[in-house]
Amino acid sequence: MAGVKLKQLEKQYPNGFKAVHGIDLDIQDGEFMVLVGPSGCAKSTTLRMVAGLESNTGGEIWIGDQCVNHLLPKDRGISMVFQNYALYPHMTTYQNMAFGLKNAGYEKAIIHQRVMDAAEKLELMGLLDRKPKEMSGGQCQRVAVGRAIVRKPDVFLFDEPLSNLDAKLRVSMRVSLMQLHRQLQEEGVSSTMIYVTHDQVEAMTMGDRICVMCEGRVMQVDTPINLYHYPANKFVAGFIGSPSMNLLLLDYHPDSASVSLTADYRMAIPASVRSHMQYYQGGKIWFGLRSEHIRIRHQASPSTVAATITNVERMGNEDLLHCHVGEHRLVVRAPSRPDWLPQINAQIFLELELQSVHLFDPDTEQALVQRKPDSKEHADPFTNQQEPSSGKLGPQTQQAAL
Q1: Could you tell me the CATH number of the domain that includes residue 325?
Q2: Same domain membership, residue 153 and residue 34
Q3: Who has the most CB within 10 Å: 65, 111, 219, 373?
């Protein structure tokens, strides 16, 4: 059992390209850590350096209490599951799972016991005599995971293991891997897992914590719920969540602490938000609001702004409405209703829940609203506390406040 620490980890290639820029990351023993980010952000490179398949050109990699920079992959106490399964096509499931142990010189009885234990955990008992070509992608991936389990490593490494599977199988395998992680924890054996994916849904549903990466740098490390509600910067705000957070570059008026959405619609930032806000006097500001924090109204009022529907994504239980508000575009999440089918080019009115706004510096792109995870802004759903007023201010009310 072991945790993993990356200390100022760097990777620079001979042509001078620097892929990884001084990463610091502390992964606890037994933790399920997900590295997520867009293609080319160096998350797989980082994982391969932990595995020893890529050499690091700076910094240190610690597994448990040992620096493993100069150890071969086989001596690092890791097992890796690859995107393409990497199974031997001429071997059966049993033989694939037993191969590494056999090469390491384990006795036949121990090999058999470990293979059977892993096969039972992964529901592979009926597939032990089959070869990879006789199995589905999901079954092959379970065999690859089983091959990792039998080695009883200190750390499991997963490099986009579900990306070759169809949508239904991905969901099934996500559940299986989470169950496996919990089962290993309950058994008191090594369950530290580092999982690489570009799919933020996988990251949000699987990780104890998530490390969001961009261009070889760590943007934020936190729990899924904190990343969603308290993004540290504009990149995390736009990357985490589906659909992405609405991010608008608006004019900011520091004298009145307000922003202009359109020429004739100015919104005052609520006092409860300003109280968390760092001192800021810039002329522009990134204004962020998630789609569920925008309400649809069918009549104009002082607290609404007119919008035109430009596209509709029907999801079954909800609709995602793409709207134009002046020169800006917003995505609004609306419950699906059989008595109202939103139409392209129809006009609606939007009410923005400004208590939930996120504000980012246009130069540094860091969050200006420094909310904390223990914030009391949201009511406890298991008590009778009331949700505070939304702070929505229409043009007339705002102008009076100014």
Answers
A1: 2.40.50.140
A2: yes
A3: 219
> Which pLDDT tens digit goes with each residue over 280-304?
887 899 999 999 999 999 889 988 9
Cβ–Cβ < 8 Å for 298, 348: yes
Q: What is the pLDDT of residues 192-249, one digit of tens each?
A: 999 999 998 999 999 999 999 999 999 999 999 999 999 999 999 999 998 999 999 9
Are 161 and 267 in a shared domain?
no
The residue behind tokens 């395998």 is 173
pTM here is 0.87
- Per residue in 103-117, pLDDT (tens digit) is 989 999 999 999 999
Average pLDDT over residues 358-370: 91
Domain containing 186 equals: 4-229
d(CA 117, CA 143): 13
End-to-end CA distance of the chain: 60
- Counted domains in the chain: 2
CA 19 to mean position of chain CA atoms = 21
